[in-house]
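hi support,

uploading two proteins for the ticket. first:
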Amino acid sequence: MNTRSLVLPELLPFLEEIPTVDLSPESLPAFRDGLEHLAGQSFLQAEDYPVTLERLTIPATDTSPAIRLLSVRPRKEATAPRPALLHLHGGGYFSGQPELTATQLCQFAQDLDCVVLSPDYRLAPEHPFPAAIEDAYTTLCWITRNAETLGIDASRIGLTGESAGGGLAAGLALLTRDREGPTLLFQNLIYPMLDDRTIADQLNSSPVGGEFLWTRTSNTFAWTSLLNPVTPGSEDVSPYAAPARATDLSDLPPVYLSVGALDLFLDENLVYAQRLIHQGVSVELEIVPGACHVFDQTDTQVATRSIARRIDAMKRGFGL
């Protein structure tokens, strides 16, 4: 179905600039190179913000490799330990790095007066599940153990992520609950990738989702890369890989979830939000009309408004 007429006019130049590509093993190297270039540009632009950017390293252990972290903190002097925001980047689980949204992370650090920490977690297909989720959990535990050195309050850690990073964040919330690990104040999930079963045509799925930027073909490649050797859609998929598979969503931190009406992930996001509500989890849901995947990575009014709503939700999550 041609959905260009449904796209917000202010987003059409973005779609002209960033053509939609069905990702595959053959196109992956070029896609990764493209995101690395964008990450470099974003990192350079981040230097204009009144924040301090550092690259830290979590040391390797017998069970975990070394993990590189991007740290973003306000330059102004802190009068008390700051809250921490653990960020998990997008990229379909097979690409991306923390610097990809560095300017947005700078805005979070500045507006929330918090320390943002974003790990460069291992990527599929070289490192399939559970590599990424274990790196995320290792990062969360390391942040908690090193709170005094980092100048943060270990009792005030929030969680955010976009696309695959949003799915990873949702999976991390489940994992730390089940392992009785560090407590999280909230989940800020931005068009999260939650359900491997989306690769199949499901009943009542939106006919207007997934034409632009993130297609069913790319989604199938991503889930196949992440879950290998488990087959996407099979009964053996872990809820920590695909949080929509979790049967118990109780006792999770409050959720702010934002997704565009033209995003492939709209249906799975709506179902997940409803299930969270039914199991007693506080949910705030934003559906952006006329918006496709990664619409917020644009210099548009719709992106500005959406990001402002997320920041407001995170302020409330931190008790600010």
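and the second one:
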Amino acid sequence: MDPYAVSHSQATSVRGEQAARVLKNTYMLLGLSLMVATGAAWFAMVNQISYINPLMTILVYFGLLFATNALRNSAWGILAVFGLTGWLGFTTGPIINMYAQVQGGMDIVTLALGGTAGIFVVMSAIALVTRKDFSFLTNFIMTGILVAFLASLAGLFFQIPALHLAVSAAFVLLSSLLILWQTSAIIHGGETNYIMATVTLFVSLYNLFMSLLSILSLGDD
């Protein structure tokens, strides 16, 4: 018997067990994070919070993202994740309240939620079933997110419907690919930290939901 073959088999088994553990912990923390975000959104809606400054939203988001990254290897990192996801949920509350005041607005919210859930299931299933390594998408996704983010900042100053639609469509595509990429990274051992994996997946879901809301709203005009 080849000792190398046995050693290689054992190493593969260990990596597979680690990947399964990271995936399980990621999905558990993601589920809890969605509950925290939903609770924060509900709190904002019940208290009729109607406006949150976009600049403050971005600054607090990046502050919490930095804290989460710094604490990713400790139990405090889980609390940082809840802080980050809770903040994003809280800032979503006023937006949902705005839709609730418009005829057919909640139908759009429901469609966006359904679309977000559907895309997440499909992209995750592709990664889990095919077991393909999608790391080749890394540069495309990161460059695309940077460009789309800068374009979204420009959209805050220039109210151009076509730009708004293009940015939203880009985030739908990039967020979908990011779910595929992150799930694949967990499976193949490229991501071993479930805290950071959870943040990536949650932010992808958040961007998907918000982008679908924008697209469906424009289509409803």
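thanks. also noticed: The CA atoms of residues 56 and 82 lie 18 Å apart.
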